[in-house]
Write a structure and sequence with these properties.
44% helix, single chain, Arc Repressor Mutant, subunit A, D-Maltodextrin-Binding Protein, domain 2, globular, alpha/beta
Length: 302
C-alpha cells in the first residue's frame, strides 16, 4: 500500500482543496485527481466530495479517516526509524499547538531543531486552537506530539512543563490599574468582560464556578490577541495567560488575580505507541528550553 497517496488525501482534507494539496506536495492537478481516484477504486468507496465550499470527506471517508491517519503516521515512523538507522535525520514532524505556544515558543524550538536536523520538515497543526482539539489530534493520530492543558486523557502520555498564571488584563486608564493588591472577582462583578470562545475558556469557566462569579460578557472573541487589543482600547477587561500577556507588546494594564490561578501546560504523545526518534528529539528540545526560560516557581519539570 502506497502511504504517499494517503498523505495527499489527508492534505486535501486539511486544506479543503485538492489543487492546493497537490501544489503543497508537488503533484500536478491531473496527477492528484488520478491518485484520489485510484485510492477510491482500491477501497471500493468514494472518499471525497466537492461543493462550493471546497473539498470534504464523504460519510465513508469520515469512517475511514482515523485508520488512514494511523497508516500515514506509521509510514512516517518507519521512514524516520530507517533514516535514523542509516544516520540520516529527516522526515516530517506534526505538532499540535495552541496560539500562545505557537507565537512564543515554537519559532525558537523549531529553529533549534532545524539547526540540528536541517532536512526535517515541521508542520504545526491547529484549527480552532482549543485544548480539546489538541487532545483529539493526538488521539486520532493526526500529529506526532502536541502541547496540551493538563490534566489530559488517560490514553495520552504527558510531560508536565509549566504553570502559566492567569492574569487580569484591563484598559490602561482603568481605575483598578493602579491597585497593587490582586484584583478580586467582587471588584470585577459589574465590569464589561471580554470572553474567549468556548474551548478556549476552560480556566475562566472553572474560576466562575469556584467563586460563583457571573461575568458581564460584552464581547466574545476567538483569538487571544484580539481580546488583548480590545482590552487595550478600553472595551472591557479579560483574563489571559501570562505566557501571552508578558511576552507580547501592548499598553494594557496587567494585574494578578486573587488566589493566583494558573493553567498547567505539558507536551503529550499517545500512550502505548512507539515514539519516533524525531519526535523524541523535538520533545527533548522542548524540555531543554523549558528548563532554560521558565522561572523556577512556575516550572513543572523535574
Amino acid at each position: 500500500m502506497d502511504v504517499g497517496k494517503y498523505e495527499l488525501l489527508l492534505k486535501a482534507v486539511e486544506l479543503r482543496n485538492l489543487t492546493k494539496a497537490a501544489t503543497a506536495l508537488g503533484y500536478t492537478q491531473s496527477g492528484a485527481s488520478h491518485i484520489i481516484s485510484s485510492i477510491e477504486a482500491e477501497l471500493g468507496v468514494a472518499l471525497l466530495r466537492r461543493d462550493h465550499s471546497g473539498t470534504h470527506l464523504t460519510m465513508e471517508g469520515e469512517m475511514l479517516l482515523p485508520s488512514i491517519q494511523e497508516l500515514v503516521l506509521c509510514g512516517e515512523k518507519i521512514r524516520a526509524l530507517s533514516q535514523s538507522i542509516l544516520g540520516i535525520q529527516a522526515g516530517v514532524l506534526r505538532v499540535a499547538s495552541f496560539a500562545s505556544i505557537s507565537l512564543l515558543w515554537l519559532p525558537q524550538i523549531v529553529g533549534r531543531l532545524h539547526a540540528l536536523y536541517p532536512d526535517i520538515r515541521v508542520e504545526i497543526v491547529s484549527e480552532t486552537g482549543s485544548y480539546q482539539e489538541m487532545e483529539e489530534f493526538l488521539l486520532n493520530a493526526r500529529v506526532n506530539c502536541g502541547f496540551v492543558r493538563m490534566p489530559v486523557d488517560p490514553a495520552l502520555n504527558c510531560i508536565p512543563l509549566m504553570r502559566d498564571p492567569m492574569l487580569v488584563v484591563l484598559p490602561p486608564d482603568h481605575p483598578l490599574a493602579a491597585q497593587e493588591e490582586p484584583i478580586t472577582f467582587a471588584q470585577l462583578a459589574q465590569e464589561p468582560f471580554l470572553m474567549p470562545t468556548e474551548g478556549n475558556n476552560y480556566e475562566i469557566e472553572q474560576l466562575c464556578k469556584q467563586y460563583a462569579f457571573e461575568p458581564q460578557v460584552a464581547f466574545t472573541m476567538h483569538e487571544d490577541l484580539s481580546l488583548l487589543a480590545m482590552a487595550e482600547n478600553g472595551l472591557g477587561y479579560t483574563i489571559l495567560p501570562s505566557l501571552l500577556v508578558n511576552n507580547y507588546p501592548h499598553k494594557a494594564a496587567v494585574k494578578r488575580l486573587e488566589t493566583d490561578p494558573a493553567r498547567l501546560i505539558g507536551i503529550a504523545t499517545r500512550a502505548n505507541y512507539t515514539v519516533s526518534p524525531l519526535t523524541t528529539a523535538f520533545i527533548d528540545l522542548v524540555c531543554q528550553m523549558a528548563r532554560e526560560y521558565i522561572p523556577e516557581q512556575n516550572r513543572l519539570l523535574d
